Amino acid sequence: MRAAIYHGPRDVRIERRPIPEPAAGEVLVRIDAALTDGTDAKCYRSGHPLLLGPPPSPFGHEYAGTVAAVGSGCTLRPGTRVAGANSAPCGACDHCRAGRQSLCVQLLPLLNGAYAEYLLVPARIASVNLHSIDDDLDAATAAMCEPLACALHAVEAAGAEAGDSICVLGRGALGQMLATILRGRGCAVTQVASADADPAPASDRVIEAAGTAAAWQRAVRLVRAGGTVVLFGGLPGSTEVPFDAYRLHYEAIILRGVFHHAPRHIRAALDLLATDRAAFRSLLTHTFALDDVAVPLEMTCGLRPREGLLKAIVRP
Ligand SMILES: [Zn+2]
Predict the structure, then answer these.
(1) Claim to verify: residue 138 and residue 287 sit in the same structural domain
(2) What is the dihedral of CA 105, 147, 236, 202, to 10 degrees?
(3) Can you give the pTM of this predicted structure?
(4) Residue 99 alpha carbon to ligand 1 centre in Å
(5) 232 and 197 fall within a common domain
(6) Residue of 147, 160, 186, 187 lying closest to 38 (CA atoms)
(7) How far is the CA of 104 from the centre of ligand 1 (A)?
C-alpha cells in the first residue's frame, strides 16, 4: 500500500509499505477519507511532543473508511463503514474510573497512519472508539468525529448552557466547530480572532481555540467576573503565560485546561454529524490526493498561502 511517512519537519514521503495483517482484536480499515488538521500541520512544521513517535512514523489521525479485514474476536464485519478516534482509554486507571479518560495513563501512543490506503486500528481503539456509520453519512464528514469530539469536550468543560454569552477565540476549523455547537445549544456566541484589533464584549465564558500565548491572555481579559475560561489551543512545552492576578483572584475567574476527548465525546460527535452534517461539512474546504498531502499542511501552518483552507480531505 501507499502511505505518507513522516521523516521529520517538512519531510513527508509517500512510500510503499506492506498491508498490515490484523491480529486478535485489531481492525484493518481501508481509508476512504482522511482530514488534515492544525496539530498535523504543527507536526509537519516543527514536530510535536505527543502526536507522533520517533520518525520515520505513519502520519495522519482523522479518518473514516471501510473495514477490510478483522482479527479474531472482533464484532465488526468486513464491508462495514466506520469512523473512529486516534486513542482509547484503558478504563481501569484512576483517571478513567473518575471519568477523566482524556488523562488516562495508557492513552499513548496515539494512533497515526490515516494518510495511507490502509490503517491498522489497534484492539483497544477498535473495541472502544471505532464505530459504524450510517450509509448516507459521507466518509469525509464522518472523519470529523475526532476533532469534533475535542470541541465537545471543551464545550463540556466550559459548562455552556442555553442563554449564556460565550466568546470563541479563534477562527480556524476548531473555532468554527465550537461556535456551531454552541449556537446549536442556544448560547449567544461571539467569535473573534486572537488579535486585540478584533473587538469583543465581555462574556460569561470564553473558549480559547487559537493556540497562541497572546490568545490565552486575551481570553482572560474577555471573560466577565465569575466566569470560566477554557484554554483549548495547546502551546509548546515550557511556555509561560502571564495573567492579571487581580482579575483571577478578586473576580473569581476559573481557568480550565482541556486536551483531547473521552469515548462519550466521540459517540456524541458522530451523533451530531449524523443530525447536523451540513453545518460541519462546510468546514471541509479543499480536497487533495495522498501524493499532495504536504500541500494542505503547508497551507495550514503558513508555509503557503492559506486560500481559505479550514480542513482538507485527503483521498488515498
Ligand atoms: Zn486509563
Answers:
(1) yes
(2) -110
(3) 0.95
(4) 9
(5) yes
(6) 147
(7) 4
Rounded distance from Cα 110 to ligand 1 centre (Å): 14
Give 88 Cα–ligand 1 centroid separation in angstroms. Answer: 9
Same domain assignment for residues 191 and 120: no
Distance 48 CA to ligand 1 centre (A): 22
Question: Does any domain span residue 139?
Answer: yes
Q: Is residue 59 part of a domain?
A: yes
User: What's the residue count for the chain?
Assistant: 316
Residue 274: inside a domain, yes or no?
no
97 with 22, same domain: the answer is yes
Q: Does residue 267 lie within any of the structural domains?
A: no
Q: How far is the CA of 268 from the centre of ligand 1 (A)?
A: 20
Q: Counting Cβ atoms within 10 Å, is residue 308 exposed (0-12), middle (13-18) or buried (19+)?
A: exposed
Q: Which residues pair with 15 in a beta bridge?
A: 3
pLDDT in tens, the chain (316 residues): 999 999 999 999 999 999 999 999 999 999 999 999 999 999 999 887 778 888 999 999 999 999 999 999 999 999 999 999 999 999 999 999 999 999 999 999 999 999 999 999 999 999 999 999 999 999 999 999 999 999 999 999 999 999 999 999 999 999 999 999 999 999 999 999 877 777 788 999 999 999 999 999 999 999 999 999 999 999 988 999 999 999 999 999 999 999 999 999 999 999 999 999 999 999 999 999 999 999 999 999 889 999 999 999 999 9
